[in-house]
Amino acid sequence: MGVERTLVLIKPDGVIRGLCGNIISRFENIGLKIVAMKMIWVSKEMAERHYEEHVGKPFFVGLQKFITEGPVVAMVLEGIDAIEVVRKIVGPTEPKSASPGTIRGDFAHLSYSMADERGIAVKNIIHASANKKDAEREIGIWFSIDEIYKYENIYEKTL
Ligand code: GDP
Ligand code: MG
Predict the structure, then answer these.
(1) Ligand 1: which residue has its CA nearest to atom 6?
(2) Tens digit of pLDDT for each residue in 15-25?
(3) Residue 127 annotated as catalytic
């Protein structure tokens, strides 16, 4: 409980579809604070570091191909219980099962079975850290300390 930081990536499918503004607005609209942001075209090696828990799984090769096929927009968001709140806005992993109103439910509809049949990753627009341990590890992979800023947003100024 309390103020947390979480890592969000707009994956290559979200970037090429021009969804960055819409996605970022959803986080800003609820008062989450962007404390770091950049665009990166990741290497296969960085994809392995980020997705270390999935290395060796049947979908990993497709996942590595997916996350390296174009640039991603990476950001660190800060707010009260930000990890859980951001996952709620993102929705569950499989777009087919994600409710309308979530990012994955609003912008995709693909299923695990279709993706597995085709040997590709489920293209689901966005990544968000799953828990506190992952958030700390992932933020350390994507950002150095001096790329993460401390400032007060309007909500904090008027609290
Ligand atoms: P997330 O934390 O909700 O992104 O989900 P995971 O950490 O479990 O998986 C990482 C990413 O791998 C997902 O966002 C999907 O792009 C992909 N993925 C996960 N599970 C599967 C699967 O069973 N099949 C396929 N094809 N892709 C998957
Ligand atoms: Mg995950």
Answers:
(1) 93
(2) 999 999 999 99
(3) yes
Ligand 2 centre and the CA of 129: distance in Å? 6
- Domains by residue range for the chain, with CATH: 3-144 (3.30.70.141)
Cβ–ligand 1 distance for 50 under 6 Å, the answer: no
Name the closest-CA residue to atom 15, ligand 1.
Answer: 122
Distance CA 47, CA 55 (A): 10
Q: What is the pLDDT, as a whole number, of residue 96?
A: 98
- Comparing CA positions, the residue from 28, 46, 17 lying closest to residue 126 is 17
What confidence tens digit (pLDDT) does each residue in 128-140 have?
999 999 999 999 9
What is the DSSP code (8-state) at residue 75? E
pLDDT of residue 157: 86
